[in-house]
Amino acid sequence: MRAVWKGAVTFGLVNVPVKLYSATEDHDVSLHQVHDADGGRIRYQRVCEIDGKVVEYKNIDKAYDDGERTVIITDEDLKSLPAERSREIEVVEFVPTEQVDPIMFDKSYYLEPDSASNKAYVLLRRTLESTDKTAIVRMALRQKTRLAALRVYGDVLMVQTLLWSDEVREAKFPSLDEPVKISDKELDLSKQLVESLVSDFEPDQFVDEYQAELRTLIAAKLEQGDAVDTAATFGEQPEEEEGGEVIDLMEALRQSIASKRGGSDAAKGGGGTKGGGGGKAASGSSGASGASKSSGGSKASAASKTGSSRSKAAASTGDGAKKKAPAAKKKAAS
Description:
This protein has helices at about 75-80, 80-85, 120-130, 185-195, 210-225, 230-235, 250-270, 280, 285-295, 300-305, 310-320, and strands at about 5-10, 15-20, 60-65, 70-75, 90-95, 105-115, 135-140, 145-155, 155-160.
């Protein structure tokens, strides 16, 4: 990893030199744009609207326009701002961890000690652990003053930048002001459904199905050319047309609970996995070809489609809280 920032965490007279690293990365398939007629790569150019010439990036400045006047802001102007020159992560206060709502979190960064001795770093980490507190800090990063939460992640200190309070929208929907009557029986059945889905969260059991399917499609096109049979590649079955049936909530809950109980018994007998058959194979290091090889559960999924539309609706209600393998989409490209 490459450090994106260097500075120090400061609280009181304590100074902890650190390096900052991005804690997350994007693994999405990278696609570019082409001309549909001949496949030519689409290129964008920065053109000056006054002289019509293409301008190199090094010759581009920023500007603010208030509608009447334009003020040009150069890189030197931005670097001269006091906040931008600051290399400190200043601790403003320590708060109970549960008071920081996850909706405020923006981006996560790891902090690495950047001194001959990491004693001050370890002391701060253990202090946060023993007090169950999160430090609210202020810092300048990438031409912005940022509020952030400094907390412990395993054996590492982590900074998670926070949104400003005015950046979080108010959740106000008129439909939620309408009175709704929930019976005790409905609530009890809903709780039973929740209990049937209770488990420990294991992130590696879940995969990005869209990216897995995209890699499968790419592998099929590389092997077969543009004339790819989508149905054969993904094992798709024609969907039955369904009317606008009104679903009875109580019946949907009952059938959802029954289907989960049946699924649990089958899993115990057959040793099923959380992420659905072939889920891990789709996300393996083999990339596109690895995703195309993932199979398992396609026959069962196809068979399940022959059930009634009411059963489908009930099953979708019960399984919404947990990710499952998509129906019959993991058959490998021939």
